[in-house]
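Supplementary Methods. Inverse-folding protocol.

Structures were first reduced to a discrete structure-token string of length 171. This string, shown here, constituted the complete conditioning input.
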């Protein structure tokens, strides 16, 4: 999947969820921006990715430590991110930091879902298994991914606001 498709889905999901948070513009902006940027975050482990070329030293380090589509492409990384957030945050729910972390999660999940549609897939059960799961056999550079991303964008417009409203009401 190319960076433009990851960014598009992340941005649409960010805007869709951000619109639900307009009662607090700081939360809406933090959520939307973080969701958009985090849709590229998983590819930090690839020095040839858009983000990897922007931050070459960090990217090379991540690639050396985890390899491409290693830890940064797993639900385990998202779990560890939330664990760090809860350990570092003082006021867990009533802050811009919470909505930024939630935005990070949505953007990160958008990236992982898109990568499920590539031949390389993702390691869903890492660290318990290194098996890669994928839903198609299309290579990452295939034009078919444009067609796959459109329904994902439509789904995100409906699902992300519902999740956001649920979380707002829950807390």
């Amino acid at each position: 999947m190319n960076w433009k498709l990851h960014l598009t889905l992340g941005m649409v999901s960010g805007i869709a969820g951000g619109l639900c948070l307009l009662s607090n513009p700081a939360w809406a902006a933090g959520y939307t921006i973080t969701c958009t940027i985090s849709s590229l975050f998983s590819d930090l482990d690839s020095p040839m990715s858009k983000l990897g070329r922007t931050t070459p030293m960090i990217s090379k380090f991540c690639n050396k430590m985890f390899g491409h589509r290693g830890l940064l492409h797993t639900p385990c990384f998202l779990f560890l991110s939330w664990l760090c957030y809860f350990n570092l945050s003082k006021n867990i729910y009533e802050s811009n930091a919470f909505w930024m972390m939630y935005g990070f999660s949505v953007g990160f999940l958008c990236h992982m879902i898109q990568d499920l549609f590539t031949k390389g897939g993702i390691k869903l059960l890492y660290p318990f298994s290194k098996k890669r799961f994928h839903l198609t056999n299309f290579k990452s550079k295939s034009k078919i991914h444009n067609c796959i991303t459109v329904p994902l964008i439509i789904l995100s417009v409906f699902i992300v606001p519902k999740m956001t409203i649920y979380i707002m009401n829950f807390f």
